[in-house]
Write a structure and sequence with these properties.
The complex is a heterodimer of chains A (553) and B (424). Chain A has 553 residues and is of the alpha+beta class. Chain A has helices at 3-17, 26-31, 38-45, 63-76, 128-137, 154-160, 167-170, 204-208, 242-254, 267-275, 314-323, 332-340, 342-359, 371-387, 396-403, 412-417, 434-446, 479-500, 518-522, 526-536; strands at residues 22-23, 56-58, 80-83, 100-103, 110-114, 119-123, 140-141, 177-184, 189-191, 216-224, 226-227, 231-239, 261-265, 361-369, 391-392, 421-430, 450-459, 462-471. Chain B is of the alpha+beta class. Chain B has helices at residues 5-19, 43-56, 105-112, 124-127, 131-136, 219-231, 244-250, 273-289, 297-308, 329-342, 377-388, 402-412; strands spanning 24-25, 35-38, 59-63, 76-80, 87-91, 96-100, 117-118, 154-160, 166-168, 194-201, 203-204, 208-216, 238-243, 263-271, 293-294, 320-324, 346-355, 358-367, 370-371, 392-393. In chain B, the strands form 4 sheets. In chain B, strands 12, 13, 14, 15, 16, 17, 18, 19 and 20 form a 9-stranded antiparallel beta sheet that branches. Chain B has a 5-stranded antiparallel beta sheet with strand order 5-6-10-8-9. A 4-stranded mixed beta sheet of chain B has the order 1-2-4-3. In chain B, helix 6 packs across helix 8 (273-289) and helix 10 runs antiparallel to helix 11. The model of chain B has no long low-confidence stretch (mean pLDDT 92). The chains are: A alpha+beta (553), B alpha+beta (424). Chains A and B meet through helix 8, helix 14, strand 16, strand 18 and helix 19 of A and strand 9, strand 11, helix 8 and helix 12 of B.
């Protein structure tokens, strides 16, 4: 934004919001320059200034204010970037053309829960934890528990088609939304709710959800809620191998059973997790201290930050420890060296993992819901797992996973602090090509980094695969070196998905990270997205430069 | 635009060149607006028609099984998809089928059943339509508590756009890569693109089915029982509530033993045996909790044979169908009953096709022994009363985003070649 334009826009926005809710302070511009995209963390670690910053940050409190902001921006032809919790991992909020970043977190009202309709109207800026606590207090659940629940918003979930850990039962967020209120790039309010299964015409809700701010700003939503679960049953299982585990999940889902949680860990993931089996009760590693971790049975949402130290090191810390040559080995160079030769490292780990694989793979499975039906479904589900040769490990592994399920994000920073990087790639495909997709993506990432995976978020027609990888591109402050390796991982991983089929993203979204692969994902169908963009945002002010739209607008 | 008979002949010749003489029906001579019926045999031919349309001065509109007589204001090439009726691929591992749009639900089901598969629990009236028609035209009732909303089982679509390009939306169980672009075409009635094939999610044929019937003190109690069972997570394959008058018409051959103002609740459950039995028991205990009692199994069996065995339903076509959300069902039924009484009309109704969005109320209004047409002023008054209580009439259209729909259509079809009269 040119200086005089910026000044004029700032004055106009202050006229709408007052001076306290408009900022052009350096510290705010710096904070709102990024989300949690690991590539940006690498630049930050190296001390680089952000490549893109917003010119202004605003904090509206009502739909009317959002409309006024968009109108000011439209008149001045200034970009707008909606910003929720900033927990995204794809750079979706990076203001690549500057402009106004609109933080929605002051819009937090929960309107009534309709007990008859089982819906709840909620503002987009509400943080997930608060939303779920409010519902729990009233005897309901939204059933959406992402590991980012303490730092992500309802609007952010909807903008990115997010998934929670219990999505196998409750569905992804797009399965749970009855309608949204959106301020479009034209500066108009549209409401997409209503009995969408009965009304003729395109399904607008599903055309807006997932648009990552490119069509407008979601200001509130009508969400479907469920009665709070009366019963939860958790189990650990050993499966003879990954293929058998996948087959077991497929059989469960295709019998019409809906466990809330299904997680099958591949050999390396199992090995790393299995190692921590021996250490229950061992002192916590320091990085777990801030991870919310309740005692089993304390309910779905532990307080934050946790008063109790975590007991399980967790897969990432374990990976880090392995890379360092043992829990006690602390030399940063050892980690860098191991990750820098990841092909060899993967081979070594592979041999070790194979030994574990002969003993089996680990699966966590859990069911929750209404008492009677959950009990019946649990019996049928466990019978399927037994039928393929699974071994019941009792409820302890499941309960332990439950207790530490929000800890994963808190384990990332130590790896960055050690001079390496870690990221995740979540892809999905039908059962017909899931094995192939797993092998191809694993090989693609494995050329550059240490990689492990688990299968979760299962459906009758397929499943998602969640790859976690740790890599290094040289010295800690060599941001360019790290970026080269990082970009190569994503390029090869995405290319593998495009080749095999399936989707490049199951629930993290696109942002800047996957924008170059959007055309490979959608091909000619991007025409429709381009037409939507033209319809909702004719001036192209909404989150420009994202989602690979530029070549189709 | 063709104005003289000669122009009509020229268009006919061009169409014959595109799809062959056997697949073009020329307009009725002397018709004010010429309408050609064309049956393309491939996606390439559809693309050819769409590309040629602006030059020929015609628009292109897909025709379904065609129960609604089309009215066209402009010279129109109506494309029948009857020749696009193949199952292109059947994936028994992922339980998906890639099918062309001209296939009817019944025809696809006939290929699935021997393999132990099924599209799901959808009413015969829906399944007789072509799959393209079911997906392109959204009307309520294409839903089942067990197998979901029909459209939610559409994993991907292929379609020809106005510029003749073919798009295929990508297939994955779920994704987070922007809007769900297939939803622009589902329900678009041919205005955004012409659907040519669909990837549909299939279901395994259930291991067991149960059907039971209950007598409840009132329609309100029956609705409460269904909602109680759904809240306990029962997922019946079919549920229907009859008011007393409707029950007497639908089950005239059986002894109902229904008291004054009582309602009949029939429920079918399906799935793995234990689960189907569990759902049956959940419905049963909900019905009893709401003051109901078990009714004759013969009622349930007859209903079952009608929805799954092709046994005919004796009742005539209802006057109107209305959709109501779960919280408004009882109020809507009450408003209908009050308005009918005020207008001196005899009312009978059943409530069916329950899902998370609500259910459909089938309303039959009778005056002097004759069923009223939907356009009868008495029926209109009843419908208005129902809408006042929060009901949505059949075929209602969301008007709120009309400006955006128009803009989207212009962006994707600037010349207005595709079904310009749809959704207006």
């Amino acid at each position: 934004m040119r200086g005089e334009v910026s000044e004029r826009v700032r004055r106009e926005l202050e006229g709408i919001l007052g001076p306290r809710r408009v900022s052009s302070e350096a510290v705010d511009r710096d904070v709102y320059a990024r989300d949690m995209w690991p590539r940006l963390l690498l630049a930050r670690r190296a001390g680089d200034a952000p490549a893109h910053q917003p010119d202004l940050i605003v904090w509206p409190e009502s739909v009317r204010e959002v409309v006024a902001i968009v109108k000011v921006a439209r008149a001045a032809q200034v970009p707008i970037v909606p910003y929720g919790g900033g927990s995204g991992v794809c750079g979706g909020v990076v203001p690549v053309r500057g402009g106004i970043t609109v933080d929605t977190k002051r819009m937090t009202t929960i309107r009534s829960v309709s007990a008859d309709e089982l819906t709840c109207d909620v503002d987009a800026g509400l943080i997930g934890e608060r939303f779920e606590r409010e519902l729990a207090r009233r005897g309901y659940t939204f059933g959406h528990f992402p590991s980012s629940i303490y730092c992500s918003t309802v609007g952010g979930w909807l903008a990115t088609r997010a998934a929670g850990q219990l999505s196998t039962k409750y569905g992804k967020v797009e399965d749970r939304v009855a309608g949204v209120t959106l301020v479009t790039g034209r500066g108009e309010v549209v409401e997409t709710d209503g009995p969408t299964r009965a009304l003729r015409g395109p399904g607008w809700t599903q055309l807006v959800v997932g648009s990552e701010g490119t069509l407008g700003i979601i200001t509130s939503a009508r969400l479907r809620v469920s009665p709070a679960p009366q019963l939860r049953i958790m189990r650990g299982y050993w499966m003879p191998d990954v293929a058998t585990g996948i087959e077991a999940i497929r059989r469960v889902m295709q019998r019409g059973l809906r466990p809330a949680i299904v997680r099958l860990y591949d050999e390396l993931d199992t090995m790393i997790n299995a190692a921590s089996h021996d250490e229950v009760g061992a002192p916590a590693l320091d990085e777990d201290a801030f991870a919310p971790s309740p005692a089993p049975g304390a309910g779905p949402l532990p307080p934050w930050p946790s008063p109790d130290a975590a007991v399980e090191a967790g897969p990432l810390a374990r990976l880090r420890a392995l890379a360092r040559g043992g829990v006690a080995g602390l030399r940063r160079e050892a980690m860098g060296a191991a990750l820098g030769r990841s092909r060899a490292f993967n081979a070594v780990l592979g041999v070790a993992a194979e030994r574990v694989a002969r003993a089996g793979c680990r699966m966590i499975i859990g069911l929750e819901g209404a008492r009677i039906r959950t009990e019946v479904e649990a019996a049928l589900t466990f019978a399927e797992l037994d039928a393929v040769g699974g071994r019941d490990l009792g409820d302890e592994p499941g309960l332990r996973w439950l207790a530490h399920r929000y800890a994963v994000s808190y384990k990332m920073s130590p790896i960055f602090a050690d001079g390496a990087f870690v990221d995740t790639m979540e892809v999905a495909a039908g059962w017909d090509r899931l094995d192939e997709l797993y092998a191809a993506v694993r090989a693609a990432i494995g050329r550059h980094a240490v990689v492990m995976a688990h299968f979760s978020h299962a459906y009758a027609d397929g499943c998602s695969i969640y790859f976690t990888f740790a890599g290094s591109g040289g010295a800690a402050d060599d941001a360019r070196g790290h970026e080269r390796v990082y970009d190569a991982i994503w390029r090869d991983g995405m290319e593998a998905v495009a080749r095999i089929g399936g989707t490049i993203s199951h629930h993290h979204g696109v942002g800047l990270l996957k924008a170059p692969y959007m055309h490979a994902e959608h091909r000619e169908a991007m025409t429709i997205y381009g037409a939507l963009k033209q319809t909702f945002d004719p001036d192209g002010i909404m989150n420009p430069g994202k989602m690979g739209l530029d070549r189709h607008a | 635009m063709p104005e003289s008979g000669r122009d009509v002949d020229a268009v006919t010749r061009a169409l014959v060149d595109l799809v062959g003489r056997d697949h073009v029906t020329a307009p009725t001579p002397g018709a004010t607006t010429p309408v050609w019926r064309v049956a393309p045999g491939s996606v390439v031919e559809i693309a050819g028609l769409v590309r040629a349309a602006p030059g020929l001065g015609v628009v292109v509109a897909p025709a379904g099984s065609g129960r609604r007589p089309p009215v066209h204001a402009r010279p129109t090439v109506q494309t029948s998809m009857a020749r696009l009726c193949h199952v292109l691929a059947l994936d028994e591992r992922s339980l998906t089928a890639h099918v062309q749009v001209g296939l009817t639900g019944v025809d696809l089901e006939a290929q699935l059943v021997p393999r132990g598969l099924s599209l799901g629990d959808y009413p015969p009236a829906v399944m007789r339509s072509t799959l393209g028609g079911i997906v392109a035209v959204r009307t309520h009732g294409k839903s089942s508590a067990r197998t979901g909303f029909f459209e939610d089982n559409v994993l991907g679509v292929s379609a020809v756009l106005a510029d003749g390009r073919t798009i295929h939306t990508r297939i994955a169980p779920r994704r987070a890569t922007g809007p769900d672009l297939a939803r622009a075409l589902c329900g678009s009635e041919g205005a955004i693109g012409i659907l040519t094939s669909l990837v549909l999610r299939l279901h395994r044929a259930p291991e067991a089915r149960f059907a039971t019937a209950y007598a409840l003190p009132s329609v309100a109690a029956a609705v409460a029982a269904v909602q109680l069972a759904l809240r306990e997570e029962a997922a019946p394959s079919g549920v229907r509530i009859y008011d007393e008058a409707e029950a007497r018409v639908h089950f005239a051959e059986l002894d109902l033993a229904l008291g004054d103002g009582e309602a009949l609740l029939v429920a079918g459950t399906a799935g793995p045996t234990d689960l189907a039995a569990c759902d049956r028991d959940l419905v049963s205990s909900a019905a009893i909790a709401e003051g109901g009692r078990l009714a004759s199994p013969a009622l349930a069996e007859l209903w079952w044979r009608r929805i799954h065995g092709g046994a005919p339903t004796p009742a005539p076509t209802p006057t109107t169908q209305l959709m109501a959300t779960p919280g408004r069902l009882v109020r809507v039924y009450g408003a209908i009953a009050a308005a009918a009484a005020e207008a001196g009309l005899a009312l009978r109704a059943h409530v069916s096709r329950f899902d998370a969005d609500g259910a459909v109320v089938f309303v039959t209004l009778v005056r002097g022994g004759a069923v009223l047409a939907e356009t009868d002023p008495g029926a209109v008054a009843v419908v208005l009363a129902a809408e006042g209580a929060g009901a949505f009439p059949l075929g209602a259209r969301s008007l709120r985003l009309d400006g955006y729909l128009a803009a989207l259509r212009t962006a994707i079809d600037p010349d207005g070649v595709l079904s310009p009269e749809a959704l207006t």
